[in-house]
């Protein structure tokens, strides 16, 4: 169906009537706390979508402009342009009282937040809307979700890509068309409440340099310090804490801000202080030394083992024959899809390996897919009557819905959790007739079926069952794939894992990431990435909050330090419900935020879990692999974080 063939009535537009400020920035790099804005454009629209204002300017960043081959902004072009603080008030006047809109909106918002903070001014943005996230929910039949691709799909002319003003004008057309399509599908807008980042103290911070050596274990009585040992400090010290940390790091030690079972030693002058580090050290049997002994040992730190070299296999063990995905970024043709040869299905508890092992409670065990592949059994690329189709399940008890979605995957299909333009079929279980989406599904003429249809489904060709939709490889729970190589030269630069779920009214879902070393521990607290700290020090792992039903973890595989062996992506329920109440989570993974997903999986927890491991990206030799995990735990995020060596408040 054409995006313009079913215009929404006014009742569907009322919830989408906002004053908009569409923004595009060109920047000297990708890290907002370090890089600068080179040009900015703002186009304002009223609630009817009519343009009411326009502003654009080049900016003198006072630094190297970065990748000129991308944005074309040379130092000569920027010479004489105003500094950001000279135009900040003009920009603020256009943003005031409006919803900020951008394609990959967190990127533009974060850069503006830093620039306003440097200028000592308030960024007047309370909410933002990402057109990339909106179109992920709409799911148009395009090869990817880049702005230019969406512009071509929606019939919006584009003159100069990477020109801030032209990109913003194009964005206006894409927004109007996306809002119409969202109204047609009755898709809620993924509006995001913006955090208070206007504090002038919100300034760039130098990244911590990762330790170059592997952890050799604990300090022995009378033995020397060895490079790579994890050392924590607590309590009052005669030498300044900063100096102790700097001297330890300079000697090749991994100076930690928390204590775990992998800590080599705790430095303290008074073990009776009762600090959290001291209590944890006593509980874990971590050796304790005083400040004087530590300073003496610093005079003779033995050489350690560097992280460089072939990486060990993930603790879960080798996968027999992972799926070989096609090269990036070329779209997958049908013949390329045949290159996906095999996926090894393993038990989720094996996929977790030697990771978190908190005390289990009722409902914490792995959920075995009914009739699914047996552990260790090699299966071909899912083929069956539902190959290339996306099936939404409505109603039923939680176990019934889980069984239905599992059956969809067994038949080669993808299990959807939200209504989008890509849904080809709907299965209605008991109670599903009362789902608020069913009238809209009926109006859109999407085929509906009862549970018996999943025994031996008969399908007819639909416009939605195109090659693009068949390209995303459906992983079973525990399935493993090799990440594709870019032009045969190494892993794709940025790899993303996007988690999405059905709209919730009783709770929120938080997606987090842990960057782990060979001990399955974070190297330092900042390698725990969450909403309050959405980026680790090197900017290699980022959390993108794209809306109330979707969050993305972006990983730079090229610049991850050698000490990073695995990135674990997890989700936690913030509130009283459990994942049994939330329902399934869908993960999609691909190269970059706007590229088409190459891998997807639908993960169902059992009943009482409040945290769930979604996916792992881990090294195997010189390559990287992705595993869909789906392991749930009854405990909260605090216990999960502590199992990886991070102490946070529950």
Strand-helix topology:
Blueprint: H1 10-13, E1 20-27, E2 37-45, E3 51-58, H2 68-71, H3 75-78, H4 84-95, E4 99-102, H5 105-118, E5 127-130, H6 131-138, H7 147-154, H8 164-185, E6 191-193, E7 230-233, H9 241-250, E8 254-256, E9 265-267, H10 276-284, E10 288-289, H11 291-298, E11 323-324, H12 334-337, E12 343-344, H13 348-352, E13 378-379, E14 390-394, H14 398-410, E15 414-416, E16 425-428, H15 438-443, E17 448-449, H16 467-471, E18 473-474, E19 480-482, E20 494-501, E21 508-516, E22 528-529, E23 541-547, E24 550-556, E25 566-574, H17 579-582, E26 585-590, E27 599-603, E28 611-620, E29 623-633, H18 637-643
Parallel strand pairs: 1-4, 4-5, 7-8, 7-9, 9-10, 11-19, 14-15, 14-16, 16-17, 18-27
Antiparallel strand pairs: 1-2, 2-3, 5-6, 12-13, 19-29, 20-24, 20-26, 21-22, 21-25, 23-24, 25-28, 26-27, 28-29
Helix pairs in contact: 6-8, 7-8
Written overview of the protein:
- The protein is of the alpha/beta class and 650 residues long.
- It folds into four domains: 184 residues, Ribonuclease H-like superfamily/Ribonuclease H (Nucleotidyltransferase, domain 5); 69 residues, Rossmann fold (3-Layer(aba) Sandwich); 76 residues, BRCT domain (Rossmann fold, 3-Layer(aba) Sandwich); 179 residues, sav2460 like domains (Lipoxygenase-1, Sandwich).
- Helix content is 23%, strand content 23%.
- It contains 18 helices and 29 strands.
- The protein has a seven-stranded mixed beta sheet.
- Strand 7, helix 9 and strand 8 form a beta-alpha-beta unit.
- The longest helix has 22 residues.
- The protein is globular and about 75 Å long.
- The chain starts with 9 loop residues before the first helix and ends in a 7-residue tail after the last helix.
- 48% of the residues are buried.
């Amino acid at each position: 169906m054409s995006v313009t063939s079913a215009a929404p009535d006014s009742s569907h537009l009322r919830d989408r009537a906002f004053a908009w400020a569409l923004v595009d920035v060109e920047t000297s790099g990708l890290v907002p706390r370090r890089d600068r804005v080179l040009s900015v454009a703002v186009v304002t629209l009223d609630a009817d979508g009519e343009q009411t204002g326009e502003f654009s300017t080049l900016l003198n960043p006072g630094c190297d402009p970065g990748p000129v081959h991308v944005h074309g902004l040379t130092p000569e072009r920027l010479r004489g342009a105003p500094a950001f603080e000279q135009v900040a008030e003009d920009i603020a006047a256009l943003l005031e009282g409006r919803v900020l809109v951008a394609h990959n909106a967190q990127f533009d918002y974060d850069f503006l937040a830093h620039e306003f903070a440097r200028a000592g001014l308030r960024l007047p943005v309370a909410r933002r809307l990402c057109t990339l996230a909106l179109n992920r929910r709409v799911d148009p039949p395009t090869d990817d979700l880049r702005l230019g691709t969406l512009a071509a799909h929606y019939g919006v002319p584009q003159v100069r890509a990477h020109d801030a003003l032209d990109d913003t004008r194009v964005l206006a057309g894409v927004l109007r068309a996306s809002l119409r399509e969202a109204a047609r599908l009755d898709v809620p807008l993924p509006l995001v409440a913006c955090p208070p980042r206007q504090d002038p103290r919100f300034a760039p911070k130098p990244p911590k340099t990762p330790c170059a050596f592997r952890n050799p274990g604990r300090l022995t009585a009378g033995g020397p310090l060895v490079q790579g040992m994890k050392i924590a400090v607590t309590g009052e010290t005669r030498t300044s804490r900063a100096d102790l940390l700097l001297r330890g790091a300079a000697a090749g030690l991994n100076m930690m801000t928390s204590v775990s079972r992998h800590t080599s030693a705790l430095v303290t002058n008074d073990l009776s202080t009762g600090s959290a580090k001291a209590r944890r050290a006593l509980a874990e049997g971590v050796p304790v030394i005083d400040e004087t002994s530590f300073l003496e040992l610093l005079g003779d730190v033995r050489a350690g083992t560097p992280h460089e070299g072939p990486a060990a296999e993930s603790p879960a063990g080798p996968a027999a024959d992972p799926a070989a995905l096609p090269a990036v970024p070329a779209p997958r043709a049908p013949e390329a899809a045949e290159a996906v040869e095999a996926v090894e299905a393993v038990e989720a508890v094996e996929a977790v390996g030697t990771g978190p092992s908190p005390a289990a409670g009722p409902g914490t065990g792995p959920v075995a897919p009914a009739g699914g592949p047996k552990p260790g059994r090699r299966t071909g690329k899912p083929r069956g009557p539902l190959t290339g189709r996306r099936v939404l399940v409505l109603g039923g008890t939680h176990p019934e819905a889980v069984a239905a979605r599992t059956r969809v995957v067994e038949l080669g299909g993808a299990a959807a959790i939200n209504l989008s333009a890509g849904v080809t079929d709907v299965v209605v279980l008991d109670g599903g007739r009362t789902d608020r989406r069913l009238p809209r599904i009926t109006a859109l003429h999407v085929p509906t079926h009862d549970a018996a249809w999943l025994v031996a489904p008969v399908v007819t060709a639909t416009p939605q069952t195109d090659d693009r939709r068949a390209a995303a490889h459906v992983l079973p729970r525990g399935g493993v794939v090799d990440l594709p190589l870019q032009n045969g030269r190494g892993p794709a630069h940025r790899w993303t894992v996007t988690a999405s779920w059905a709209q919730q009214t009783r709770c929120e879902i938080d997606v987090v990431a842990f960057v782990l070393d060979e001990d399955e521990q974070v190297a330092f607290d900042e390698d725990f990435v969450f909403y309050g700290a959405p980026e680790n020090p090197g900017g290699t792992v980022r959390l993108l909050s794209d809306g109330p039903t979707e969050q993305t973890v972006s990983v730079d595989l090229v610049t991850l330090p050698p000490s990073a062996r695995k990135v674990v992506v997890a989700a936690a329920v913030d509130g009283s419900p459990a994942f049994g109440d939330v329902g399934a989570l869908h993960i999609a993974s691909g190269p970059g935020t706007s590229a088409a997903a190459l891998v997807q999986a639908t993960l169902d927890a059992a009943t009482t879990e409040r945290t769930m491991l979604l996916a792992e990206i881990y090294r195997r030799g010189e390559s990287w692999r992705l595993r869909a995990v789906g392991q749930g735990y009854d405990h909260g995020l605090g216990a999960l974080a502590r199992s990886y060596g991070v102490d946070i408040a529950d």
